[in-house]
Amino acid sequence: MKLSNLKALRKKHKLTGKDLANVLNISYPQIYNYENGKNEPTIEMIVALAKYFNCSTDYLLGLTDIENPAEFYRDNTLELIKKSIEKL
User: Fold this and answer.
1) Which architecture, in CATH terms, is 6-87?
2) Distance CA 16, CA 67 (A)
3) What distance in Å separates the CA atoms of residue 64 and residue 12, rounded to the nearest whole number?
4) Global pTM?
5) CB neighbours of 65 closer than 8 A, spacing ≥ 6?
């Protein structure tokens, strides 16, 4: 299981792999392996990463392009309602 968006999130937050490893109290090779699919993180680690980056676990796993669904729907509610009305 590769954390498809971990590297992008880490870079977006201007963190090195070593910085993130220190924050999570794990080794840098673990971060590298998570980013490259060479090691599978535990569920607890996936949740910890999602909380740290304020994103969904689905986004971390590459299952969605929406980083934070709550923010996305809050920011796009009016547009989504307009599109729904147009379909009527």
Assistant:
1) Orthogonal Bundle (1.10)
2) 20
3) 17
4) 0.77
5) 59
